[in-house]
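User: Here's a protein and a ligand (FE2/S2 (inorganic) cluster). What would the complex look like?
Assistant: Let me lay out the input and then the predicted complex.
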Amino acid sequence: MSGRIGVYICSCGTNISDNLNIDGLAEFSAGLDNVSYVKVHKLLCSEEGKNFLSDDVLKESPDRIVIASCSPREHEKTFRNTLQKIRFNPYLFQMVNIREQVAWPTPDKSEAAEKAKAYLRAAVKRVAFQEPLEKKEIDCNTDVLIIGAGPAGMEAALLLAKAGRKVYLVEKNSFIGGRVARYEDVFPKMECATCMLEPMMDEVMHHENIELLTCSDVQDVIGFLGNFVVKIRKRAAYVSKDKCLGCGACYEPCPVTVKNELDYNLSNRKAIYIPYTGALPNVPVIDEAHCLRFSSKDLDICREAFELGLITKEEYEMFRKKDCTACKEACPFEAINYDEREEILERKAGGIIVATGFELFDPSAVPKLGYGKIPEVYTSLEFERILSQTGPTGGNLLMKNSKGPESVAIIHCVGSRDKKYYDYCSGICCLYALKFAHMVGKKLPSANVYEIYADWCVPGKDNQAFLDSVKQGENIQFIRTPLPVDVELNQDADRIKLSCIDVSTGKRELIVDMVILCPAMVPAKNSRMISEILSISNSKEGFFAEGHTKLAPVSTNIEGIFIAGCAQGPKDIQNTIAQGAASAGQILSALVPGRRLELEVTTAEIDKDACSGCMICISLCPYKAITLDRENKVAVINEVLCKGCGTCVAACPSGAATSKHFTEQQIFAEIEEVLK
Amino acid sequence: MCSGRIDPQFILKAFQSGADGVLILGCHPGDCHYKEGNYKALRRFYLLRKLISQFGIEEERLKLDWVSASEADKFVRTINDMVETVKALGPLKRIPAHTSTEKGTGDLQEIKIG
Ligand code: FES
């Protein structure tokens, strides 16, 4: 308890004194218990005012201070800093808001005077119970873990690596570049996607500060900003990165042929493979699930291959013995090692960036569209492969019967902007649908293209011009329909009958050869699992939730963990890169080598003797900051993780938890005095 | 500090100390600076409202609402509405225990708080 409280009253020019009798308030304050002096100033937040405050505090040496002035939101920090500089503990100071809460909203002078007195009484009573609190700091690790090596993850990795940070770049696939690396051209300037990304991928693979971990996933993360410990599972690939030159000699002899899921099942691959020509790193992997050595069910596949005449009887017999070494024998560099095993790696990092990308809504959920049943109905990602020179048709626009389509329909908004599926707009579909129309026109100039759309969403400085230029195309027709997902597709001999509502002409039927669906962009399948591992929240659609829609778009609810790219929500490549860069910037500013991390001062505390170990607080803590000390059966608060929200304090049935600077005693004192 | 720090005892303390009404204002659901404190406040509020009515305090004297820093109009409206409500109810009667006749009318003076 204190006995010498100094009270300072600021008239804020005339902002406060116009409506409040400052001298009267000073006189009243001087009469309060424990107040040893009262000083009045015209503008305490000015340079002159701050100097006055410092000098006066040094002269009077009070043990507690009350300042009655504006809102603490305005100047609490200012005064705390001023006091800190003269080594007066800033937590022994309390601020009273007599401007926004009294002088401004209370026109009646005598009411204002009474209100101001009540607030001063409360602050004087409260401050007496305040305790000095010390700032704490901890060392931090400045290395960074990035999950996902698509455009966002690569951009962040490069920026951080160039700034001298060690980066662990974890990628679940055997290759980097995400989905974009599998596109042909990108809108609006129709640039070649691979040419655009290749220099970036090359740098990522060769930068000395980047440890690229492909075929890997994050299994567990513990810790907090500046001090994360991460467990990474690296699956066995059976091909040594150091020895393999990517010559491809191993694919040919492999007797297993399966659908290539990384080519959206449009082509076949072997059990040792690279997913597409040009994939980087250009090192194949062995697919355990199908390789004869590692899986037995694939004897069936081998038998099928034999029955189809793809392999000879002798070969079949040999492979049946499951000691197939075809790829190893073919490898000129002894790069294949069947004894490689999965590894669990541990890495330490100070910050984490999650850039795990997106997936497409599965259109087979809308039976009318016939996806998965009608062979020539594709999703946009599948069509990207058909357009790609590294894709199943070598970049020729061909149907499954190897003929070029005479007419192609592109259906927008499949599952997006629709309450039944996803109510948001993915924001990029209109633009890639235009890109598709443009590319069809380029590859097959005589083909007709129908864009079946509901509305145009083409924001940005280049995109309207792009729409206008595509509209010039001769063979392109735009059909506006209220709800594209209501379009009906039916096989009609070897063509497709498309029925829809055209808003200008009513019911409309078309016969087309190929249909491309533009499905909603949805969260990647593993995003729930990643949220659980990292304790980061999801938005209602399942993307990772940003700290603040406008002000903190790449932050999460966990300090030190950032999100970038489509993992945060649907967006184009440009915005993905921007977020990758933003998250790198956040980390560079949050984790500075040599700088220690300041911890929250007003955290919660648990009185061991009063705690009954009921664990109510543990389940309530939104920061996972409380754990049970099993031996002593009491709750323990991790001061580094606690943000001081106080919810455990409000809930503790034994009164064992207290909030520093917001104790029950302090708050009760305020309530009693305000209401006196 | 957050609406999640509001210990039900604070409210009872306020009624005991002479408040005729108590208004709890928190950030909008989903906007809590500390993630989910306002949800906790809401849960406690429902329970507490039941409790105060058992003490003979009208439920309307305790109100919870969400107001963000940018909602000046809503803030003013909420406060004025609350003032109206409390004015209509009149001052809270604090009946000493020995004069209490009606069953179920609690004695505020005897509730030990803190
Ligand atoms: S900070 Fe939690 S409700 Fe406002």
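Summary: The interface with chain B takes residues 537, 557, 602, 620, 622-623, 643-647, 649-651, 659, 662, 664-665, 667-668, 671-672, 675-676 of chain A (CB under 8 Å).
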